[in-house]
Structure prediction request, 436 residues.
Amino acid sequence: MAPPTQDPRHAAPGGSAATDVLFRRWQRRTLIASIVGYAGYYFVRKNLSLAMPAMEQDLGITKSDLGLFLTLHGLLYGLSKFANGFLGDRANARHFMVAGLLLSAVANVVFGFSSAVFLLGFVWVVNGWVQGMGFPPCARLMTHWFHPRELATKMSIWNTSHSIGAALVVVLCGYLVTFGWRWCFFGPALVASAIAAYLWFALRDTPSSVGLPEIRVATADGASHDAPPADFRRFVRQQVFANPYIWVLAFANFFVYTFRYGVLDWGPTLLTQWKGVSLQHAGWMVAAFEVAGIVGMLVTGWLTDRVFGGRGARMCLCAMALAGVCLLAFWKLHTGSTALSTLLLGGAGFFIYGPQALIGITAANLATKHAAGTAVGFTGLFGYLSTIVSGWGLGTLVQYHGWNVALAGLVGVAAVGTALFALAWRAKAHGYGTLS
Prediction:
């Protein structure tokens, strides 16, 4: 019988049959717990969009002010995700993830009790920073528990956490807002706290932390996660900052996130003010964008592994172009049909969440598991710089020029993103030196 290391999908290289069974059980447990945990982060991050129309009326806040909240939150989130990428590569993933989620829940409670524009903005910016503690530990978990040859598929499954959390919170807040916009923050904070407690009991850091063998994959220079700090920094520079394809992916991520958050953050306001639907219906329509994104992530992850040989940039190019086509149709086919609008918005979600998931996966594979958190944090930093455009930029654009100009801008964003992915067409599937 061939040794387990001959099969890249085999859970515990070199282990006994009992060890392999236990390893696969922990893989499932880690995958499910990290999906639930990161969905919990979205409960206390993407709840603002449903509260914004009510906050405009109740507090007299302008769209530019609300857009500035989104921008500053996103910028601090991106910086935090980048900074915490370095920490996340060496910190205990369980402790890191739980601490960030609890701190975000506290920030939401404080936000819900506030009324002054300055205080609201300050608290939401703080929330952006602690939200950056969510993804790096997930990147660490996934790259330590799954072989790189199946990582695109498994991380696409994990990436459904974004859409699960965002879809559930917009539906929940669509009903909670009827009791007052402040409940859009109190309710999700309670949910996030319960999820943090679950994570504490469900998650563990790496296979070795539960007495299981690590997945052994050699890198181009034999780098080790336990290497001395100087060697680790050199490896990070080589695999991340000196890799031109990671830079291209980072710039492309700016446009992917501009498109995605332009729809997700402003969708409820656009649908109520431009389409004339109720907030409850708007919540379900934005949820359709997210649910379609779940399917899109799973399909594009599978296609990346099975058709494109793990080369995520190639799949991203196709998906980004089609997302732009769907949004163009949503904008131009303004027939008043809610069903058609929901279908086209869902199509945009189906395609945009492919690149949203695959950029992080591709960067993690190119950087290898030893620098995955840093690579994902770096590309994420560019992603959240996009909130300058998707937050304050779109808010100001709509306030002075209307929704048609804003939608035209988002279609243009999709076109630029597609062109950038074309530059990464020749990128390899991974940075591991001994893999074919």
Notes: The chain has 16 helices and no strands. The CA atoms of residues 266 and 358 lie 24 Å apart. Residues 244-273 form the longest helix (30 residues). The two ends are 23 Å apart (CA to CA).
